[in-house]
Amino acid sequence: MNLKSILKALKLNESTISMALGIFVILAIGVIVINFFKGRSNSTPSIESGQTTESANEYTVEKGDTLWSISQKFYNDGFKWSEIAKANNIENPSTIEVGQKLTIPASAKAAEPSSSPEATSTSIIAEVSPTPEPSVESTTEPSPTPSQIVVSGGNVDQKITENTYTVVHGDNLWKIAVRAYGDGYKWLEIAKANNLKNPNIIHSGNVFTLPR
Fold it and tell me: Model pTM greater than 0.85?
């Protein structure tokens, strides 16, 4: 076979070769597109499941926990304890028990609760019967326990009508708020009005401004 014959044969097969190359390119593109969408669909569930995981965490109460300390642990902000209380339908923040499972909402990270943190029965942060208000200096450890400290030197049920109040032994912000406003959760307003950085620590003789 001479050169002329070879060139003629190549010319005759040129259209066939071009068609084959075209089909190959189309198939390659098709495979790439299919793999792209397949990979994308596989990744979608993992994203959704990740979002579900982030939406809420579950926490088991341990000895010494309060809603305040739990909020501090998850959000670095104890004042967000009320979000946890709301998410778990806790009407009395003083009643959480060791072993109790709490849902920790992710929304609390952005929302700041308007109420006080948990408190413990004897000391606001040290025990597991959390009560939301800070205890007086008489408590061994600071913890926002509002409800279980006995007030001496005054009538617990006596309503506070003045714009200022002098702390007595056994007081906490929760009880003061109940007497002043009829709502213990307004202890936070008292804390803010008096620039209290640690609501767990108040002392007998402190004079607090009560915002009206």
Answer: no
